[in-house]
Amino acid sequence: MMDALSEIRERLIADMFQAYEARAMSTVIELGSHARQKGLASERSEWLLAVAQQSLGRLDEAKTSFRQLVLRWPGRASHWNNLGVVARQTGDDSGAEEAFIRALQLLPDDWELHYNLGLLYLQQRRLLDARKHLLLASDAAQGDIEVRLQAAHACHLSGDTAQQTRLLGDAEAWPPLAVEPALLLASMLGAQGRQTAALATLDKAMQQEPDAHGSNWLRLLIQRAALLERGNAMTPARHHLQQIRSIHEMSIQPFTSALELELAQLEAAMAVRDQDWPGAILHYRKAAGLEQDPAALASIRFGLARALDRLGQTREALVEARQAHVAQAELAAALVPDLLQPGASPLLLAHDRTASEDFRQWRPAPPAVQASPVFIVGFPRSGTTLLEQMLDAHPDYQSMDEQPFIHELSVRMTAVGQPYPEALGDMTAEDIQQLRAVYWSLVGGCARLGSRQRLVDKNPLNMLALPMIMRLFPDARIVLCLRHPLDVLLSCYLQSFRSPAFMLMCSDIRRLANAYRQAFEQWHDQLAVFTPRVMNWRYETVIRDFPGQCQALADFLQMSDASPLADFADHAQRKGFISTPSYAQVTEGIYQRGIGRWQACRELFEPVIEELAPLMRRLGYSF
């Protein structure tokens, strides 16, 4: 039989639950405080009190209450989880981490605990830890969209494109999202080249907004304009920008800092399109003053550096680039710490070589069913995108944007116990056909070739994968893109790359020059081994004699008509999304300004000239 004290306690808890369900949180707190004063507190009353304090934003009080709960009932994972959430909300990251870890020790398979810990690590930019826990949560959460979105975000930031693609595979079918998740999803889909899905995500979110010109609606419209610009759809992008400017001018309330930041970034991108370098610099500087996230700020500073460079303010450009590299290098070092070790190379295949005696023992490859791709290779920023779009403009060729499929094949070989490139020589005809089938299956996921079309596989660093190319496609024609090495290094130095390895590679001019030298040393070594069909495509010669080089390319590839090659700029404009940093420049046609830019900042290259001089001479360039 319940004693009188227990009866009073149960009635008090019942009143607290009733108030809680009615969302009368002040009443819950009043009753909970009364229970404490009268010695009637219990686990349930203390939990209700803490939750009510949290709900009303009285976070320090809530943290104290949850701390009391875990001290009195340390075996309850839910109390540790709640303490972790409130600690994170109050900025107590170490306390939050400790609480979530204690909760996981009690319930190691609870996906919500992994999710909360992953969000904490994501907030702290501990990206590898965030990815680990958010992937665990996503795999166990039965398709919860918010969990999948945050897991994809962690993969996006840490450079895990395969997992990101998997998690967002059916994003087109997702229901409408709130503003922040919609902006995040659209940004990631846009970076993947899924422009239609990204725009649809924004449109669905805009339809949910009650205020057609409110701040949330405007943020969605700004991102819509940015996506259109990124996809070379300039007419609708300009229309959206004009809408936004008009609303900005007529707005009585000042824009929020988030709106001002996003608008400044859009204005900067549009000014770059118009080659309005003073305008771009103005808007980039405004954005830099508003941005708090180090990675995003680095990207803005790179944009500012390029605009300053185009205006001839080279020293100022290098200052901005150095600041951007410091931020990016810190991020990349946390993701790929092994690359900071002495002798480590950011170019994964730079040391993978096949010796002449090994090549002579290779078994003959079986005839290919499909025509071999045309491979476009070269160090990044050497003009590969220009050449790719020229070939893509020809009706007999189709590119697939920049894909890592050749490298993926080497990874798959190693994963099944066949070391690359050593095991290439042991492959049977059946092995080769199977590997070709894997390649064409990967291609089929992003390109649909016509019956008479030949694939263009453009990936600059496939220059390091010559053994794989020659094993699968020994008759393939390869075009090596060349450009003055110092122009290449300068362009890389001023560029923001998503790959953590490339972030580190480009953050230091010595490391960058060393990678360039390693790439060409491997290329020349393997060129002597395999003697493939190669054409050197020299950027400076192309710019000075475009018609002649078009014909030379047509002759090398045995084209009957070279005239479509000249339509590349209009073709790129019509094509829309192009994944590489040159997506805007390639729509401008042929121009001279990319030649000799290094001469304005000779001092940047003083530390590496001696190292690069022999290679520069071999490639036909001088300092």
UniProtKB/TrEMBL annotation:
- Provide a Gene Ontology MF annotation, just one: protein-tyrosine sulfotransferase activity
Q: Where are the TPR repeats?
A: 77-110
Q: Which PROSITE patterns match?
A: TPR
Sorted keywords for this record are: TPR repeat, Transferase
Checking Gene3D superfamilies in the record gives: P-loop containing nucleotide triphosphate hydrolases (3.40.50.300), Tetratricopeptide repeat domain (1.25.40.10)
User: Is Transport there in the keyword field?
Assistant: no
Q: What is this protein called?
A: Sulfotransferase family protein
